[in-house]
Write a structure and sequence with these properties.
six-stranded antiparallel β-sheet, alpha/beta, Ubiquitin-like (UB roll), seven-stranded mixed β-sheet, Elongation Factor Tu (Ef-tu), domain 3, disordered C terminus, about 25% strand, disordered N terminus, about 25% helix, 20 strands, Rossmann fold
Amino acid sequence: MFSASRAHTSIPPRPIAIAVTLMFLALALVKPILSQGGEADMSVVPTNIDFDWFELPVLALVYVINPLHLWYWVLGLTALFFLLPWLPPQRLGSARAQNSITFHPDHQAISARFGETLLDAGLRQDIDLPYECRNGGCGVCKCTVLQGKVDPGLYQPSALSAAELAQGKVLLCCASALEDVEIEYQARTLPKGFQEYSARVVGMEKLTDDVMRVLLKLPEGQQIAFKAGQYINIILEDGQRRAFSFANPPHEAEFVELQIRLMPGGRFTTHVFDTMKAGDEVRFEGPIGDFTLRESTRPIVFVAGATGFAPVKSMVEDAFKRGLQRQIHLYWGVRSRKDLYLPDLPERWAREHENFHFIPVLSDPAPEDSWSGRTGLVHEAILEDFPELKEHEIYACGSVRMVEAIFPFLKKHGAEDGACFSDAFSVSARSMAFQPRQP
């Protein structure tokens, strides 16, 4: 499962900027916009200028500036504006655009980069701040703004209410400083439930054009104890984190299996697909999260979107190992057939286990898919099969949009708040939304 830090910037990723520039150049050659009055004659100073919606402000200057010098200025400024995002002065300006954050009760003052969250700034400078989900879902990093202005960012209402926001509370993992600020946070009363590890890449397999299976191996004699459904944070060189779920079950702990989807412009995922190789060192922290199977006798409905299949795979294989006899239905919702990157695995589960049922759902199958299975939105398929969802447990893992969209529909058909559990992620970050265990 993929996660990337939220970026407050107006500059698009370089591949997009290059593609858009080339597109406009191609359009200019195929269908140029011609100015009025015919071709320009640089040896003549115009006395009457017809209206030109684009060039009029520049042409008017020919009355006070040498025409040749004027066009030199126009071309030079055009080149300057085009190169501005990559010029050193711009980078220096961004480096100076920092705000001071003072954390209480320890009175530690640090600097925050433009658009950097309070949590990322603190962790980057070795402040032991409380956190878990890193995307506004769990509320562990809730703090109070004592002075200054912050952008609260995007978060889930269940983690921060409107009343708390009005009282000056924000979430460290979502909020960013707009000026110098003072923040009061609740220091940890218990040690972190996870630790940092260093592992080596020992295997890479491209499951589709945009999904890579990566196997990590810890040093000899070392293993990580985790629960099926939990995840790890990959630690980048500058301290930023990227969250990915364990795809292997706990009883197969020789390797850490990750299923990583390539995101356009994604810093870490691009590295995985372009430059990562066997033998590379990877630092990560974990295990993290509470998206795990609850102990009960209720039938289980898994809802996976795209690489949300990774934690579901871990949980299903763990359930088989432990001999769970509860009925298990897995709905895997993707766009087209190629996005079912491991279709043979759940089909084999269904053949080998009478209590397991696999229902793939394609929202937009291509003609070449020759698809005769279920189509449409994944929650529609669930409601066709389960008009009444009372007494079921529902575990949903996928994008924030998918998770937020399906639960209202499912709850209208009997799904209970205390029996709905989710692990949602977005292009920018993971969001964990946990419901309390059903009494």
